[in-house]
Write a structure and sequence with these properties.
It is a single chain. It contains 7 helices and 4 strands. It is mainly alpha-helical. The protein has one domain: Ribonuclease H-like superfamily/Ribonuclease H (Nucleotidyltransferase, domain 5).
Length: 155
């Protein structure tokens, strides 16, 4: 599953095809080119910064080249800390809250999980995303102060 968040809004959840191998080619050709970039542009046009973690498919050379060409501003993997989960608003705020809400009641199968994810995401408040995005610069400054090490205690 993939999604993008920013202060102008959020994309719908994008589900990965069952059995798909998430390598650089699938990420570029299917997720980015066919789905995610169009969804982002429908909300933000060309006013956004594209940030992602350092997953292998994200840091692939061809992926970085595509994003340099296709996004107005791109934070490339070569300047992004290797262990950057604490610097991605989706990772440090959104996923946890989404999971907490989705798993309140036992889930029986993948169809039920997908339906619950979609319903929960539709009810997710933009203010939660805004707060997470607003914390990004503070978290980045703390990471720099900690010289790339653990910094949660500095916040």
């Amino acid at each position: 599953m993939s999604l993008t968040v920013f202060k102008l809004g959020c994309t719908k959840l994008i589900f990965i095809e069952p059995g798909a191998k998430i390598n650089g080619q699938y990420y570029r050709d299917v997720l980015l080119t066919q789905k995610l970039l169009a969804a982002i542009r429908s909300i933000a046009e060309d006013v956004f910064v594209f940030q992602q973690d350092n997953a292998p498919a994200h840091r692939a050379r061809d992926t970085a080249e595509l994003l340099r060409r296709e996004t107005p501003q791109f934070i490339s993997p070569d300047i992004w800390p290797a262990n950057s989960r604490d610097l991605n608003p989706v990772d440090y705020r959104v996923w946890g809250m989404l999971q907490e809400r989705v798993y309140r009641i036992r889930i029986r199968n993948t169809d039920e999980l997908q339906k619950r994810l979609v319903a929960t995401w539709a009810e997710f408040q933009q203010s939660v995303v805004d707060y997470a995005v607003d914390q990004w610069r503070k978290r980045l400054e703390a990471c720099i102060y900690a010289e790339g090490g653990h910094f949660e205690h500095l916040l």
